[in-house]
Design a protein that fits this description.
This protein is mostly beta strands. Helix content is 0%, strand content 51%. Strands 2, 4, 5, 6, 9, 10 and 11 form a 7-stranded mixed beta sheet that branches.
Length: 112
């Protein structure tokens, strides 16, 4: 049974940082394209960051230079380091393996 469990969300002030984690079981993050997506209230889910099997990373224009996706093969975990957070980054963040498997999400709220 495949499970993706996100953690690390919370309330942070503008300009602050958070590190999200996605712990995978029943599937290897090393041999899947792993992505972070987000969905803000009233908006569609969008891709935030992707790391491919080969290690190539891609980012939404809105987060380039601020967010970093990484993969820990030993812990079978994917991380999203988020710096210089803005109120418009507020959303539920989801981890996905190949857009086939999804976690339940973790809420990130950026507010003063």
């Amino acid at each position: 049974q495949v499970q993706l469990v996100e953690s690390g969300g919370g309330l942070v002030q503008p300009g602050g940082s958070l590190r999200l984690s996605c712990a995978a079981s029943g599937i290897s993050v090393r041999i899947n394209n792993m992505g972070w997506y987000r969905q803000a209230p009233g908006k569609e889910r969008e891709l935030v960051a992707l790391i491919t099997i080969g290690g190539t990373t891609n980012y939404a224009d809105s987060v380039k230079g601020r967010f970093t996706i990484s993969r820990d093969n030993g812990k079978n975990t994917v991380h999203l380091q988020m710096n210089s957070l803005k109120p418009e980054d507020t959303a539920v963040y989801y981890c996905s393996a190949g857009m086939r498997y999804w976690g339940k999400g973790t809420l990130v709220t950026v507010s003063s």
